[in-house]
Structure to design on (149 residues):
């Protein structure tokens, strides 16, 4: 049972982090090279698609981390699982308070072109997103070390 939970948790959070990393390292740099109209359209489409799927994926990941922490309480690594869960929860709060409002504006972009303000908002989102990815990686490292103990 624990092996299955370890595999599911690792896959769930690992694939989520991989997706978020791909957005930051590959998708957004390519979007910046598009003309303004194509960029606005692509940003709007990505914001809608990822904005729909990610809340469920983040919640499932948090529940798996909490499940790991509960099942491994008073075992070696339990503090790391609590840290991973806490980091993940903090990322969700940060996402809801800061990144989601920007993402919601990006979903409503006019396909004609990105204004200077919209470009600044997208750059701000991208910079904050990189911090989110770093925090998620830290949470995953805590989890992996804990389940490997």
């Amino acid at each position: 049972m624990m092996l299955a939970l370890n595999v599911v948790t690792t896959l769930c959070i690992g694939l989520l982090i991989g997706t978020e990393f791909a957005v930051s390292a590959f998708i957004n740099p390519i979007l910046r090279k598009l003309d303004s109209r194509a960029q606005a359209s692509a940003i709007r489409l990505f914001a809608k698609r990822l904005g729909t799927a990610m809340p469920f994926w983040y919640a499932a990941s948090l529940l798996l981390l909490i499940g790991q922490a509960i099942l491994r309480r008073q075992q070696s690594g339990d503090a790391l699982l609590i840290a991973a869960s806490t980091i993940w929860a903090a990322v969700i709060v940060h996402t809801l308070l800061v990144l989601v409002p920007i993402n919601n504006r990006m979903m409503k972009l006019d396909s004609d072109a990105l204004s200077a303000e919209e470009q600044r908002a997208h750059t701000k989102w991208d910079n904050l997103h990189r911090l989110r990815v770093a925090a998620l990686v830290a949470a995953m490292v805590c989890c992996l070390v804990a389940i490997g103990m």
Notes: The two ends are 16 Å apart (CA to CA).
